[in-house]
Amino acid sequence: MRQWARRGTRPRQPADQRYRSAYLFGAICPARGVGAGLALPFADTGAMQFHIDEISRHVARGAHAVLLMDRAGWHTTAKLDIPKNMTLIFLPSRAPELNPVENIWHYMRQNWLSNRVFADYDAIIDAACDAWRSSSTSRRPSPQSECATGHTSVN
To answer: Quick one: 23-149 is in which CATH superfamily?
Structure first.
């Protein structure tokens, strides 16, 4: 979230010393403006398999999904069972700017998830889910498809 302040001053922001994380897994179809997202407590092979299965359920009948992914260990493991309606394409290491979904994460952080203190872990999950739903339903074409195709600014 951006916050205006006088030059030379530092605006106050909420702060919390507790540390809990949730991981938002998401995939979009820019052509259809739809997506599949999950907020999970871990980012590991099991979570990735759950996400792949969720994406596969949302692929239109007779269509084929192509997923652009970075080279995180849980993306590249041979333990994943990739459905027949999906192909994975791995991007070069250390090149997040090549992955269109990074724009969506930036958009969500900027508009819904930054500078907040959450009451508990359930509030973190609720906020992540609300951010995903809000980014996918706030208007047509969805911000997700615009961010993924580079047709909007998320500054």
So the answer is: Ribonuclease H-like superfamily/Ribonuclease H (3.30.420.10)
